[in-house]
Amino acid sequence: MNRLKFYLLALTALIACSAKADEGMWLLQLMQQQHSIDMMKKQGLNLEAQDIYNPNGVSLKDAVGIFGGGCTGEIISPEGLILTNHHCGYASIQQHSSVEHDYLTDGFWATSRDKELPTPGLVFTFVERIEDVTDLVNAKIAAKEISEIESFRGEFLNKLAMELYNKSDLKGQKGIMPKALPFYAGNKFYLFYLKVYEDVRMVAAPPSSIGKFGGETDNWMWPRHTGDFSMFRIYADANGEPAKYNPANVPLKTKKHLTISIKGLEAGDYAMIMGFPGSTSRYLTVSEVKERMESLNEPRIRIRGARQDVLKEAMNASDKIRIQYANKYAGSSNYWKNSIGMNKAIIDNNVLETKAEQEAKFAEFAKAQNNAEYATVVNKIDDVVAKTSPLNYQMTCLREVFFGGIEFGNIQLDKTREALEEKNDSLIKIRLKGLEQSYQRIHNKDYDHEVDRKVAKALLPLYAEMIPAEQRPSIYQVIEQKYKGDYNKFVDDMYDNSIFANRTNFEKFLKKPTVKAIDQDLSMQYTKSKYEAFEKLASQISSLQTELALLHKTYIRGLGEMKLPVPSYPDANFTLRLTYGNVKPYDPKDGVHYNYYTTTKGILEKENPEDREFVVPAKLKELIEKQDYGRYALPNGDMPVCFLSTNDITGGNSGSPVLNKNGELIGCAFDGNWESLSGDINFDNKLQRCINLDIRYVLFILEKLGNCGHLINEMTIVE
Q1: Which of 77, 151, 654, 678 is catalytic?
Q2: Taking a C-beta distance cutoff of 8 angstroms, is the pair 623, 637 a contact?
Q3: Cis-peptide, bond into residue 565, ω within 30° of zero
Q4: Which residue in 132, 230, 243, 493 has the most C-beta neighbors within 10 A?
Q5: Where is the signal peptide (predicted)?
Q6: Helix %, strand %, coil % for the chain, to 5?
Q7: Last residue of a domain, one of 535, 551, 570
């Protein structure tokens, strides 16, 4: 009888899941328990769970990793060759670029191994092992070794991870980093053993006119014609272990690499993505969605827009500044446009109404269960949000202006001041020596003092418009009293006369360092005031966030129980996930139909030599006009560029492999569509689409434009 009940429960779960099969960022370690592998097979998958994730052997999981600190990459050859997005590799491409070697504009192609460029600071991280530590954490809570809220905190989780690592067989192995994290708002906990490789070299990157074709205009949009890819390679020591850069290091012999399929794809084909989605908020209440719109998105849109106007003007006027600020601008504009699209999509897609319906159903469920904790939790969340919303608005403005917008004024001289007060000569010498590094950090190769001056002149008065006088950092009192509210005059004084403003001022201070000079320095006053404002706000928000975290733990546990037997997935937190769906077109509005793929025809249709975003390289144009596509063309002679799938992704999934039913690589995920930018909050099956780069376009560019046939030769390709 029990077995029958279990069978019926599992069957019900399968039926229920089939209604919204595309939604979900599923944990690989729960594929069998949650029956997601059965659903994948139903949609067309030819693999077994062990082929995707095998805790005791090699699987597809071992060919996917974290690229840098915020993207996904996949291994596409036995010798450590990485494929990721162009925008993921953008900072590294910029790092190697100069006016003399402008790889952003011209692209970079390593025609041999010795030309692959070491990229300091870039790492690639594999997931070595995953362990469920929920029972252990709960036991510690029950024994009162820690409180429930302490179980969420990094201090406890980091300590636990190290304790378990020191007891494990992985202790002492090179590159291993343990990381414990909460899932389902603290209802589950997992320990990840990560393996970090530090010698990663740049191998190939198309020019930005291909890798960023369409630029800001096409970002988050379909149809898309962006060749958003770059390639890197992992190097290791002679034993295949992680090692810092050394000329003697060799390409990593990977235990798993992806087979590449150029067979093509059709509407309805199975598509699966593995990667590291960064953050979603699928379990927010109505009040929290409103807070996201009004306290986070709206101020971010306004402030970033003002900063970007300044940067764009400066970048258009100078190639040097364009290269310096390319990555900063791209990083800023990406989530500026995302915030605009999210607020629009929340309204257009009736997300607030959907959330209200969910809350009503939950209230009925709580009543039926006679569960007082569930019955009151939403109202309690709303009460806390009423307090956090104005504080989060202030914090967003503060962060965007003083920590994300204006770059100058980030150095505090407190320790130098203390040494001078104590008249400790040896300590003074050490502090002054350290200031040289501080100066270099400010005036780095990607910083222009005059551009930043213009940013400050734009943002300081804007902040004053958005924030009441009593809530502003104390530097605003100085501006009012000393400069009669003249922001330009204050900025010029700080940017001309501060200790760190220029080399002359800096060396003058080094020759005669005094407490008075530090106290009177405008940038020091400015820096101190913004940190004081931040700490005050952070302290006010912190206690409320603690309360909210515990309430969410209850709410999400209740929602999970309400949905049974349908399994729930946890919000994204930049851990390894799997999402499955199909290649599919969509209809965004009445009378509009979008095909599921684009071709190079669209590149020429969009071409505009007068607009940097839509310049087509002469060589690519020639190849398109001649239809010189080789074996990568469609049967009708066209060349595919991008395609759509219904996979559930978010930021962090950039660069993720798109796999067919056989686990073969067919594309590289790089964006979501404009109409579904509310997707981080609420998944919409009808509208949500993942925009992917067709692997055939990657190989075509690599071979025909980059002349990198040697890279293609090391791949495993099926046709």
Answers
A1: 654
A2: no
A3: yes
A4: 230
A5: 1-21
A6: 50, 15, 35
A7: 570
Smallest CA-to-CA distance from 658 within 643, 672, 674, 676 is with 643
Q: Which residue has the tokens 């000569």?
A: 425
Of 220, 120, 325, nearest in space to 671 by CA: 220
Q: Who contacts 106 (Cβ-Cβ below 8 Å, separation ≥6)?
A: 207
* Inter-residue contact 585 to 565 (CB < 8 Å): no
Give the DSSP per-residue string, 358-402.
HHHHHHHHHHHHT-HHHHHHHHHHHHHHHHHHHHHHHHHHHIIII
Tokens of 124: 């690639």
Q: Would you say residue 114 lies in a domain?
A: yes
- The DSSP string of 12-30 is HHHHHHHTTTT---EEGGG
Could you tell me the two tokens for 343? 């607020």
> What are 589's strand-pairing partners?
592
Q: Helix or strand or coil: residue 121?
A: coil
Same domain, yes or no, for 104 and 252?
yes
Instruction: Give me the catalytic one of 22, 102, 228, 521.
Output: 228
- DSSP character for 247? T
Q: CB count, 10 Å around CB of 287?
A: 21
In contact, 500 and 438? CB cutoff 8 Å: yes
Name the one residue in this structure whose structure tokens are 């070595």. 128
* Tens-place pLDDT, residues 547-583: 999 999 999 999 999 999 989 999 999 999 999 999 9
> Two tokens at 214?
């369409």
Q: Is 228 designated active site?
A: yes
Q: Are residues 651 and 277 in contact, defined by beta-carbon separation less than 8 angstroms?
A: yes
| Cβ–Cβ under 8 Å, residues 421 and 515 | yes
Q: Are residues 548 and 517 in the same domain?
A: yes
225 and 350 inside one domain: no
Strand 81-84 to strand 230-236: parallel, antiparallel, or no bridges (unpaired)? antiparallel
**138 membership: H or E segment, kind and range:** helix 134-142
Counted domains in the chain? 2
* pTM more than 0.70: yes
Here the CATH number for the domain that contains residue 592 is 2.40.10.120
- Whether 382 sits among the annotated catalytic residues: the reply is no
Which pair of tokens denotes residue 415? 């320790």
Query: How many Å apart are CA 634 and CA 719, to the nearest integer?
Result: 12
Annotate 325-337 with b (16+ C-beta within 10 A) or e (fewer): bbbbbbbbbbebb
* Residue the block writes with tokens 């950039």: 654
**499 and 465: one domain?**
yes
Tens of pLDDT, residues 423-442: 888 888 888 888 888 899 99
- The helix or strand, by DSSP H or E, that contains position 592, with its residue range, turns out to be strand 592-594
Query: Domain of 704?
Result: 19-123+198-280+574-719
CB-based contact 206:704 (threshold 8 Å):
no
- Find the catalytic residue in 87, 225, 257, 552: 87
Q: Is the peptide bond before 567 cis (omega within 30 degrees of 0)?
A: no
654 assigned to active site: yes
Residue 11 has pLDDT above 70, yes or no: no
408 and 553 housed in the same domain: yes
